[in-house]
Every structure is written in C-alpha cells, then in structure tokens.
Amino acid sequence: MSANQEAQSDELLALASIYDEEEFCKTESVQKGEIRLCLELPPNFRLLVKGQVCIECGISFLPPLVLSFELPTDYPSSSAPMTALCKRLDELWEENRGNVVLFIWIQFLKEETLKFLNIKSSLKIQNISGQPQCKSGQNQAVDTAVEKSKVQELDKRAVQEVDPHTDILTQLLDFNEIQKQKVFDGKVFSCGICFSENLGSKSLLFKECQHVYCKTCMKEYFQFQIRDGKVQCLTCPKPECMSMATPTQVKLLVSQDEFARYDHLLLQWSLNLMADVVYCPRISCCMAVMIEPDTTIGICPSCQFVFCTLCKRTYHGLSLCKERKIILMCPFIHTSTVKSI
User: Fold this and answer.
1) CB within 8 A of 222, min separation 6: which ones?
2) Domains of the chain, residue spans
3) Residue 171 burial by CB count (10 A; 0-12/13-18/19+): exposed, middle or buried?
4) Which residues have C-beta within 8 Å of that of residue 56, sequence separation ≥ 6?
5) Are 190 and 214 in contact (CB under 8 A)?
6) CB count, 10 Å around CB of 245?
7) Which residues form the RING-type domain (predicted)?
8) What would the CATH number be for the domain defined by 3-142?
9) What does pTM read for this prediction?
10) Architecture of the domain made up of 187-272
11) What's the pLDDT at 242?
C-alpha cells in the first residue's frame, strides 16, 4: 500500500469513528463519499419572508450542507479531493497541501460557514417571480433589478439540490422541526412528575411551555383524563400551566380505542363552544347540525329530522314551544287558584 493510500484509509477510518452514518457516508468500492453537515443557527434566529404577505418565524437549523468528495490516487501528496464546495475549500487545501484535509474542511463548514457567507438574523427570503430567493447581510438591501445585473458566474462545483418549483419556506420549516426533534431525542431530561432521568426520545415536550415529562407518566395521565371524558384537560400537568397536548402527541401514547374516544369527545367539546351548532335530538343520531342565525329550525343532515332548536321536538313553526306555553300560563293558573280560594 502506497503512502497516499494509507493516509486516505486512515483519514476515512477516523472520520467514520467521529461522525455517525447520517453525517458521513463512504462508498465501499472507491475512495469517495458524502458528508452532510447540519448548521445550528445562533439563538433567536429569525426568518423573514417578504412577498404579498410578510411572514416572520424563528428557526434553529438550516438544511445540511452536503460535501461530496472523491480522493484522487495522488491525494494528499499532490492533488486535493474533488468536491462540490469551492473557493475557500481550495484555499484551505493550498494551506495544508501534502496533508489530509477532509477533517479541516468539515470543521470549517460546521463552525465558520454562517460567518463566511454572512448569514445573519433576520435571513430574508424574497419572492421573485413566484420563487423564493434568499438574501442575507448586505445583500438584503440590494434591489432585485440591480442584483440581476450583477450576477456573478457561480462555481460549477456548487450544486443547489432544490427543485425550482419547491416552496423553500416549507422545506426550511419542516427540516427545522425534524432537526429540533432529533436534538431533543438525544438529550437527557428530568420528568416533572416522577423526577426520573430519561432521554428525550422517551419523553414528551409541551411545545408552548417547554415543560418535559416522561412518556410513562404522560400515558397514565392522558388515559385517566380520557376515561373521565375530560379531553379539554389534556394540558401540561404543572399547576396553572395551560399548554395543550397536540392530538399527535396523544395518539402516540394511548391505544387506538382511547384515541378514538378522545377524538370524538374533543370534536364534541369544540362544537359545543360554537353558538351556531346544535345536535340532532334523536338518540339514534345525535349528528351535529349547523343552524342559521336568528332561527329556531334545525335540519339534521344525516337523518333529515326537522326540529325546534329550543325544545328539541319536531319543528312547530311560529307557535310557542310546549314548555314555554306552560311557563307563560303559570302566572294565570296561580292567580285563578288564589281567586277561587
């Protein structure tokens, strides 16, 4: 084995021991591979989308930089790895010519990319001709027409692996949520109920308040509330905290039958809060019925029963409900009784 081959093997072996399979992938047949680097943004980093409607949201991660490489036979003695990143990586190779350089490149990409590319909060995405375009730092103030006239030739080794018809904002937000969950799963948290130490993958996070509990405690808590029909009470167990568990979180912890009951009761509870919704009075139906404002007629879309929304009996037109007639007649009946005495 030549000195170059030995250096290449040692470098790839070292990288495989440092990074997991999602970050570092090497082909078995030839000396090439791929390194995926996820950049963690500074705290309180904001993303601003400017278009017909301005949208601002916080993100913690950007999609990964992908460093694809192939090691020439004369690397590292003479040639640099062939890569899809550009000028600065070339400069780092020149500074370290004759030595293995992949780890130096990776560290640069992970630690200095944001500063090198001048990516700062708020990162603006401007909709141009229906497609989102990213701007950052000084470029954010450049007018679109001027910017088009100053487009520089891009390094052909740099490839943007994004479909031009893709909604970039959706991609950024989706990836941010996935990466945040991945980071959460790998950390250790103390359950706020039983105080046991658990990985995030075995814990549940209430997103609004950021309180964390183990899944065992939350499963019992959810099951108890669902059995009692208190689906509106699936809030954070901490006193006075009103952060609600999401249906997705509930579904992951309870059985299929329990979730079906929860889903039904939650829908019923939500409908009860709506002033224009009543239920079909037929016991065999009980379908939710939308009613028009200032009317007392309800028509069930399921069984077609037409009923009065006040007395829940068959609709009786403009005549008074039976119960209301009795109430109105009560003073008269009472007066007549007194006079007869």
Assistant:
1) 234, 245, 250, 253, 254, 258, 262
2) 3-142, 187-272, 289-341
3) middle
4) 46, 47, 48, 49, 122
5) no
6) 21
7) 187-341, 191-236
8) 3.10.110.10
9) 0.56
10) 2-Layer Sandwich (3.30)
11) 87
